Amino acid sequence: xxxxxxxxxxxxxxxxxxxxxxxxxxxxxxxxxxxxxxxxxxxxxxxxxxxxxxxxxxxxxxxxxxxxxxxxxxxxxxxxxxxxxxxxxxxxxxxxxxxxxxxxxxxxxxxxxxxxxxxxxxxxxxxxxxxxxxxxxxxxxxxxxxxxxxxxxxxxxxxxxxxxxxxxxxxxxxxxxxxxxxxxxxxxxxxxxxxxxxxxxxxxxxxxxxxxxxxxxxxxxxxxxxxxxxxxxxxxxxxxxxxxxxxxxxxxxxxxxxxxxxxxxxxxxxxxxxxxxxxxxxxxxxxxxxxxxxxxxxxxxxxxxxxxxxxxxxxxxxxxxxxxxxxxxxxxxxxxxxxxxxxxxxxxxxxxxxxxxxxxxxxxxxxxxxxxxxxxxxxxxxxxxxxxxxxxxxxxxxxxxxxxxxxxxxxxxxxxxxxxxxxxxxxxxxxxxxxxxxxxxxxxxxxxxxxxxxxx
Length: 456
Prior knowledge:
Blueprint: H1 3-13, H2 26-33, H3 36-39, H4 43-56, H5 59-70, H6 79-90, H7 94-100, H8 109-115, E1 132-133, E2 135-136, H9 139-142, E3 150-156, E4 159-166, E5 169-174, H10 185-190, E6 198-208, E7 211-212, H11 215-219, H12 229-234, E8 237-247, E9 250-251, H13 257-270, E10 276-278, H14 287-295, E11 302-309, E12 317-318, E13 323-327, E14 331-342, E15 351-360, E16 363-370, H15 376-388, E17 390-394, E18 397-400, E19 405-410, E20 412-415, E21 423-426, E22 429-433, H16 445-452
Parallel strand pairs: 1-12, 2-13, 8-10
Antiparallel strand pairs: 3-11, 4-5, 4-6, 6-7, 6-8, 8-9, 11-13, 14-15, 14-18, 14-19, 15-16, 17-18, 19-22, 20-21
């Protein structure tokens, strides 16, 4: 939580003896009172000074003072929590608020009034819709479904994006709400002749000879204000269209997926372009057929399947029951823990960020960093072990005895000149602590490079 707020709440429930003072204006606090904390001689004097301020203020004032002392007025909150709170306070539906908050905005009084207005508001032409996200498939429950109600699509490892054509302009938004139009000029050009009032949801991939290239190729475009002809030629992109969200200026997200797909197919047929194509719908009549499709996903360059109800609307966020992701099992290697670093937030007092290495001859070469996958008991156990077996410290990082082995899972691999191992991995995480395996039996860099051939 927010430490400034936590202290204020603790003082509310266990107040200090009051030491009332004449109220001071904010500028006097900033210019005269608070600077005293920097000139006192000892930490004890500084503590006593701050406690005396707390004793003179009410609870709300203590909170504001604490925020000033800690250097930031921002209070961290998830987007979902903000939307829930605004909806409860204003009566505006969560889905409407989520849509109005998408894209770029300036936090002014006028924007807040427009955001919370019960009446329909005029949106910017560039404004995307909130993305609908799939949930992990529960295999046991899904086997009882009527499979005629479902279809599958390949789950591509690219950038989820919305492509918008409005007001004779094209806008490309990433799922992270970054406007990435300049990074994909081919996709922008492909939509130039499309009708206004069109919004598609899909995936941007580097694509060549009918197959997707690794995510490593896509990374060479990211963050650039302008993409050179050389980069475009070496890393050609396609937009694979999953869904149609707006048609002829009408929001059609409540229509069934099957209807939206048909309208999308009609548009792609009417406005063909080599950088645009639809996501292929895969049918299955039994769960075994679905698992067979999943088993060959990597052969198609995909990371699994997304299974969608044919009658599903396009909702906001991660809603269960309509869209399921069915990813292939991660690839994995057994690696040795060599470095540890303290985490952040509630984990700031624990070593939770780890670096793992693979053998190259008699040398351990750093291979991947991971910070997720262990439960709380394992984190506590490993933290104690790290403190007892530190061999060297450099800054916040500790080097530890190379004896602990962990199975590290990841979604993809690519060659990398920026990594000492020559390899980068996608979404590394800890699958299990291999207490049964000695460090000498951990995997080698050579075995990692054999796996790399799958992603070339």
